[in-house]
Design brief:
Helix content of chain B: 55-70%
Number of strands of chain B: 21
Shape of chain A: globular
Shape of chain B: elongated
Structural class of chain A: alpha/beta
Structural class of chain B: alpha+beta
Number of domains of chain B: 4
Strand content of chain A: 25-35%
Oligomer: heterodimer
Amino acid sequence: MTLPTTDEIILEAQHVAKWFPTQDQRLNLFSDLNLRVHTGQTLAIVGRSGAGKSTLLSLLAGLDQPSEGQIYLAGHQLATLDDRTRADLRARQISFIFQSFHLLPELTALDNVRLALEIRGDRHADEQARHWLSEVGLGNRMQHYPAQLSGGEQQRVAIARAFATQPALLFADEPTGNLDEETGHQIIEQLFDLNTRENTTLILITHDPELAARCQRCVTLHAGQLHEATA
Amino acid sequence: MKGFRLLLLHQISSQLRTTEWRALLFATWIAIALATLLALLGDRLERGLLRESAAMLGADLTLSSQRPIRNERLEHAQQAGLEHTQVIQFPSMIHVGDEMMLVSVRAAESPYPLRGEIRTRPEQPHAQPPAGEVWVESRILSQLELSPGDQITLGYAELRIGAEMLSSPDRGSGFRSFSPQLVMHQDDLEATGILAPGSRAEFRLLVAGDQSSLELLEQAWRDSLQGDERLFSLHTDQPMTGAALGSALGYLKLTALIALLLAALTIFLSLRRFSQGQHKRCALLLSLGLNGSDLIKLYLCQLLLAWGTLSLLGTLTGVLLEQLILTWLNELLPQALPTPVLWRYFSGTAMGFALLILLGLPPILQLSRISVSSLFRDEILGSDTRAQLIQFSCFILLAAALLTFLEAPLAALTLLVLILVGGALFGWIAQQLLRLLAAPLGRKLLLGRLLTLRLRQQKRWHRLQAGVVILLMTLLSLVWISRTDLLADWQTQIPEDTPNYFVVNIQPWQTEPLQHFLSEQQISSQLYPMVRGRITTLNGAPIHEQLNPQQLEHNTLNRELNLSWSDQPPAHNPVTAGRWWDSDSDDAEISVEQEMAEELGLVPGDRLGFDLGGLTLEARISNLRQVEWTSFQPNFYVIFNAAALEQMPATFITSFRLTPEQESIATQLLREFPSLTLIDIGQLLQQIATWMERLGDSSALILALTLLCGALLMLLTLRQALEQRRYESALLQTLGASAAQTQRLDLLELLLLGAVCGFLAVMTAEGTLALLYLYLLQLPPKLHPLMWGLLPLASTLFFTLSGAVLRRQLTLPQCYRLLRSA
């Protein structure tokens, strides 16, 4: 399967290091880490538990600051952005899919998707949310609350929420971790299908080799260094 | 076993750090303290004033009448071989120099009392004051700056104060039992010249002796009780003192119901959240080898230990609070109260047990159903029918325990339903108002649109918070306004020239010199004749056969009425139907008070029959009159034409106003007419006001505990809500909102919630006050502008400030970590 990519670099990490101060020394999670991702690419980050995959993802998404080095996202040097601009960048360029779905329990599926659109001030939030819920096959479950949906359906709402804002970059953190194998497989299909159609750049963290194999690129975080394997 | 104990201790010490467990402990502590306080106070007041009726009555059986005791009654008591004695009680002013004081005088024959004893300081060799001597309560001594050995003037008699009366039985019924009391020997009564035929006094026949003879006599008297007579015995009726204090206690208990409910709600919510937080721990313990019943035992032991410790603390607090309230009430209580019955000390402990165990059992049973697999994945324990049934049964048992504890099941149940329905209704209205307010914001602002979603998401929390806050603030405002404005409003609406003195027991031969005295002092007043009589027939047939049960309950049909006569309608009583009679009319005609006529269905032309001390008289209703009962003028339900009544023996009544500068006239009047009974309305109102104030202080203390419970509940739920908001805030920030936006969203939500709650509390308080003004004080309702400003402000400040203090802003890395760990 050929995925559309461009030469445009949407995400670049240069000499990134992250350490945490402990009582008498510092704990180095990784250092001198470099990564370049082109628009439309799919990238899997794999590694052992505790290797720092999630921390790396939070740095790449601008949710955390590196101890050293620079990260450029859609042409912006993240370290130079103020809180407001960074929030705006998240609202317009980035989306997340989590292992635990993270839907607000008191809101319907429709309102959960609308929420993301409302944050970016979308004037057609309701229309867009309906469209994306239909896209993920939940056109008839819009008014259902998360507790009334199965795990797979909840993750599809989360996917609809992620794609509804038409992000340039989609970060997925163990998106099938809470699902059984068959449902997980269906979710993967849907995710990649939408990714291809929308030409979104997808960066995902996973332990699942099958899922990692679906990505164009796969990097392993080991001993604080990224090792890229040929897909 | 040792391992179990270690596990239990470790569990308790670690859970002491959680908010839920702390809130639960605190709420239980307050509930136990409150229940102990009420049980002890209630027991002492009830046993002191109700249950120790023998000592209260001063006898085993008391016959009370507004007329001198009939000879046949005395003969009955004598024939039954029972000990008996007579007491006459009446209000009168005593004076010492220029100082005067309204007191309740008891003139008793010997022996007196028949049961219980009069305790005095210094102790006296006699059971009652000998002739020439009076025993008085401390209030009289302190107000008139007297001490034993001093002389006082009562009517024409000079009497010596023999002792200070510390406590005494047979205080009488009605408000007179609260007035400062003076006991004298009946041998001195004639010398005072106060009582004459027709004087206002209560005559009592006290009887004591063998139980079986007493029962026979009581039955015989009950069967032949006359309209002016009442019977008080150990087992049936209680004196009014007890009834009044019983009502006051009932009021305090109902106030406490709200606090107990709030405590129960806090405990319930804390336990629910606490047990939700225990799922993983239970699964872990199961995986380590414990079974379901071990888990039940573990958590039950934890609850029981908490209950034991809090019982001790709560009971101690309750005892201290009870002492505080008794200190406030001490000088007003008629006599020293008995020590509480031992088991009453355990009432709070029992209430604590009911609250903790009945509310705690269902979640604990739920915990035992956890499976080890929930260690690996999130499992939501479904609430099956059995669990729901257990929970429902526990709620019912708890409600029953509460109602039993309050000893007024019907009133408590009504209040319980009102609170629950009111709270739910207020919550729903508040939620709708919030939606209405957020809608226009949502059309214009991004924050408004997020707020709309937030309101949808937090609707349950908003309902609960609003319901509790509105109820509490309304209650607080009502107590506050009642204590400050209500009485003042009522007093200020009394016109300047309203009489402040009543003179009763004026004999016919005193009317002319009294009028002369008053006109010399340039005091305008009108004397009204008074005859006592009872309504017996309507249009020739017994009245009880013609009215429905509700009408037969009417105040005017179950007692003797003060009847008057006049050829002119009273200036302050406009005629509303029919016409006033001609002064030369010879037929018996009457004018009836309008409301009484409406309630009994009487119209001009009807004929009413009266029993006037054995004489019967029938008269035609000529007209209806409107009477302003709060005018402090002598007012009558029924006024006859002069021709019908003027031949009857009567006493006269009048009222007038003395300015503070004229107060010496009252002393002069009593010097010239010592046998008249002068009643200072100011002193009477002052006595009532003091009681109201002390009762207000006691209810304010309970209200303070209620507010504490309410504040605890609100802070607990607010804290829980803010914890949930941390998660939402993390999600919103990850989805693209800035930290400032999430902060503004939280504050806007809390600000609107506070304002809406304050506004609704004002509306509810004003509505309730309007009803009180209209129906209790019969005044036009008025707005309380200060409350309109203060309540919304206080409510808004409470929500926003506690939100600002309890809210913790998340940094972006924290947001992501929180979402990953959730």
